[in-house]
Amino acid sequence: DVKVTQSSRYLVKRTGEKVFLECVQDMDHENMFWYRQDPGLGLRLIYFSYDVKMKEKGDIPEGYSVSREKKERFSLILESASTNQTSMYLCASSPQKQGLNSPLHFGNGTRLTVT
Amino acid sequence: AQSVTQLDSQVPVFEEAPVELRCNYSSSVSVYLFWYVQYPNQGLQLLLKYLSGSTLVKGINGFEAEFNKSQTSFHLRKPSVHISDTAEYFCAVSDNTGGFKTIFGAGTRLFVKA
Questions:
Q1: What sign does the dihedral A80-A84-A87-A90 (CA atoms) show?
Q2: How confident is the model over B96-105, as pLDDT tens digits?
Q3: Least CB–CB distance from B100: residue in A92, A100, A103
């Protein structure tokens, strides 16, 4: 079974802090994604990566950056956290480089609260 | 551009009753369609997918969905629900127009009552 592990389940940070959310997958998947989930809005794509050191903007990249130095690890960075970034963050991976028909495998999520 | 509309934000239903969760999408090209389920405090897991071929797709836990190209719909159904089906359900679509990404609907919360 594919395992996608997010390092924290709950995180509380202060406004202006730099925040790192870490995600690791153990199935050698090429593609990795960061979504945020908000009630009534579903999942919105922040950034994705289909190869090491590659990144692509999703639909809501403002205020975020990402890093993919190793194939199994994809980090989401909030350079200066703001209260409107309080949300559930979900990491996902999928096999097959740029394969649109591959389902996503999700981690359990990190609930971030910015005060 | 792709979009996914889940027509019901919440669906309450009694145990052993049938249920249908509705999903409509917009895309002008061939699409791949997915339903995911999210149980409380967990990530999403795949219920079923339509890639091509038969328009009736069967998934895990007794769920099925039917792809209707003319109505651009992909509704999820189960003939008899259990308490354990209480969860949030997401419809998702990917195609080759908006770049390499999967777009999700806003979700439908299914609440099964005893």
A1: negative
A2: 665 567 889 9
A3: A100
